[in-house]
Design a protein that fits this description.
Number of helices: 4
Oligomer: single chain
Radius of gyration: 17 Å
Strand order of the largest sheet: 1-2
Strand content: under 5%
């Protein structure tokens, strides 16, 4: 089982394993998977859309994971961490916008759009929970000797 998977605790409840790197975060893993799927799908799109739809959806989908990673690096400061998670959530919504356009232009079918929207919604809810409850993710500062 990976570091980021949920493991049962000794008391029968559920807890998460220690997260040592942003790649251990399930939310990052899910965002990364969507970005990889968007890249794979967009390889076959029209060259006419290369600098509009294709580049925009790729950039937005990749920015979700990048913002999560950047937030992880800033987690000593709760406000900075939360701000980057909010950015990630915004990029997820932008990705959804471009995917809706891709479906409207016949680049992807309705079933693919529905599946990707479901995945975006899932990690959007995860980001929302982290935004609302950042304390478990914020790095603890060492106590001052003064």
């Amino acid at each position: 089982m990976s570091e980021a998977e949920i493991k049962p605790s000794a008391g029968g409840g559920r807890r998460t394993a220690p997260i040592r790197h942003f790649t251990d975060l399930i939310v990052w893993q899910k965002a990364h998977a969507v970005a990889q799927e968007v890249f794979r799908l967009s390889k076959s799109w029209s060259q006419e859309e290369r600098y509009a739809l294709t580049d925009q959806v790729r950039r937005a989908s990749r920015s979700v994971g990048a913002s999560i990673a950047e937030g992880w690096g800033k987690r000593r400061y709760e406000a900075s961490f939360v701000a980057k998670l909010v950015d990630a959530d915004g990029e997820g919504h932008e990705t959804e916008h471009w995917l809706i356009n891709a479906e409207a232009h016949g680049c992807i079918d309705q079933a693919t759009l529905a599946r990707l929207r479901s995945q975006l919604s899932e990690f959007g809810r995860m980001l929302g929970s982290m935004i609302d409850h950042p304390a478990p993710f914020v790095a603890k500062r060492p106590a001052s000797d003064n």
